[in-house]
Amino acid sequence: MISAIYNFALTTGANRVIRGARIEHVCGDPTLSPEKDYAFGMRIVTTALQTLTIAVPGPTLFDPMTPGKT
Amino acid sequence: MRLEMGTFPVTDIVFGRTTRYDAGRLTVDREAVLAAVRQDPRIATAELEIARPGESVRIWPVRDVIEPRIKVEGPGVCYPGICGRDIATVGEGRTHRLAGMGVVEVSSVNWHDAGGDYVETYLDMSGHYGEMYPYQKLVNLCLVVEPDATLSEEVKNYAVHKAALTVSDQLGEAVRSLTPPEREIFELTPVDPSLPRVIYIWCVHSPQAMSGSPTAFCTATYGLTQLTPPWYLHPNEILDGALTGPYRTAFAMSWTVANNPLLSDLYRRHGRDWNFLGVISLRTEWTTQTEKQLMANQTAKLAQQLGAQGAVVTWDAGGNEFIEVVRSIQACERLGIKTVFLTSEDDATDGAPTMLEPLPEADAIVSTSFFKNVTLAVPEALAVARVIGLPTKTVRRGSTIGLHGGADGALATAGPLPPPWRYDDHYGFGSLSCIE
After folding, report:
1. Which among A3, B53, B151, B231 could disulfide-bond with B281, CB atoms 3.0 to 4.6 Å apart, if both were Cys?
2. Is residue A70, in this structure, part of any structural domain at all?
């Protein structure tokens, strides 16, 4: 689950929680140029897809901007 | 800060040749009041109608209900900062209010184009659902107003709200130089230092995140609607209208904010049961976890700096805004400040929690309602004899329970209507129990 309010996602039991940007633009940032916005969104979505291959013991947070840190 | 509140109870409103108050009867010069409203070139049409308690009348769409309050002595104006009004700090001197009545702002103008913030409130002056609101007991002067259709949504909002405030001001002027039948002094005098120190954490919605505008119309603090760090307000400022509605729920109107029974009780028992420290007003709907937590931390820190030992917490919204509210409670408790939380409940269907983020620190909670018409199978509101406002109502939320609108979901306003889609008594006006 990609969520800007990730603690809520964790407490409600989502196994893999990916930190999104903001509630109003979870996978993007309108202050960036279109190219950078696309790259930013891709990084979040790609992180989300990659976490599907990772076994987790329970609700776990993944931060696309800090790879490897959970 | 000392405020003398002079109350003029209104028991009836009639139209007449001059606007004046006489022993509970408010006469309104309809043409003079409307002429003042129409001075604003942004206003296209404006009419006034009276709705009395018990009448078979439905008012739709209800954007706000305002209690006329006027500054008689002391700095500033009541309802400061809104729609370009003076922003001098209020709460000092003398204020006159017309009690038992409301100026109802009736217009098709919606809050803003984004999100799900629709104007949803209708008001029945008789019948079951009207009884659940404090406004049904008021004599209501309804301003049915439409702005120039070419204006932006934001400008339309300010135009129609300014029009309602103009009506409120015109009525208030009628009692400016009269002697009030009732007077009450509001002052946070020094009290017995052994009394517990209590603060009121009053959370109010900001439309900034959903509208994308820092100036979108909504619940305001001195006219400001944007997301801001917590404010420390003297309760007298709120009595003078420094904190105002409206927001989309029926209990977040300006009238309910000005007449919040929780604020009154906290104030009136100051010096007897506790030491009331005042109000921290927290703007909600921050949109990252970090911002929500920061506001919670700062709210609790401010309460601690002010010496609070206890806090009463209310909020006026739903959804993600719960996070900064409940985390403020958690942060207070972790600093040793005991909290009591007033909140409505969420739908527990399929085992969902009745609160979005149940935290163990929030362990003293007063439920002010659960209201979902589909789950409770509550009946529709009955047909009425007269409508003030728009002839049709589009049902955007909630069940129509056997009522069939057109393809666009529009129903005749005068006919049976679905019950209100939510019932959130944020401040404890009603005494409706869970079983009722």
Report:
1. B231
2. no
Give the type of residue at B316: D
- Identify which of B405, B410, B411 has the alpha carbon closest to the alpha carbon of residue B384: B411
DSSP labels, B371-386: --HHHHTPPPBPP-SE
What is the rounded CA–CA span in Å between residue B398 and residue B317? Answer: 17
Å between B254 CA and nearest CA of chain A: 28
Q: A22 and B287 in contact by Cβ < 8 A?
A: yes
Q: Is residue A68 part of a domain?
A: no
Two structure tokens written together for B418: 């679905």
Domain that holds residue A21: 2-62
Place of tokens 């400016």: B176
Instruction: Please state the domain extents for chain B.
Output: 1-185+387-404, 193-371+420-436
Tokens (6 digits) for B184: 């009450």
Residue A34 in any domain: the answer is yes
Q: Where are the beta strands (DSSP E) in B222-329?
A: 231-233, 243-244, 275-284, 310-314
Largest CA distance in chain B: 65
Rg value, chain B, Cα = 21
List chain A residues with CB under 8 Å of B321: none
Please give, one letter per residue, the 3-state secondary structure of B391-417. Answer: CEEECCCCCCCCCCCCCCCEEECCCCE
Residues of chain A with C-beta less than 8 angstroms from the C-beta of B210: 24
- Chain A nearest-CA distance from B345, in A, is 17
CA distances from B411 to B122, B146, B394 (A): 13, 21, 6
The nearest alpha carbon in chain A to B323 belongs to: A8
Beta strands in A1-70 (DSSP E): 2-3, 16-19, 60-62
CA distance B7 to B11: 13
- Cβ–Cβ of B357/A11 closer than 8 Å? yes
ipTM: 0.84
Could you report how far apart the first and last alpha carbons of chain B are, in Å?
42
Q: pLDDT tens digits for B109-158? A: 998 877 667 888 999 999 988 888 999 999 999 999 999 999 999 999 99
Are A5 and B212 within 8 A, CB to CB?
Answer: no
Q: How many domains does chain A have?
A: 1
Is residue B108 less than 8 Å (CB to CB) from chain A? no
Give a yes or no: residue A51 inside a domain. yes
Q: What is the mean pLDDT of chain B?
A: 92
CA distance B420 to B131: 12
Residue of A6, A11, A23 with shortest CB distance to B287 = A23
Q: What is this structure's pTM?
A: 0.93
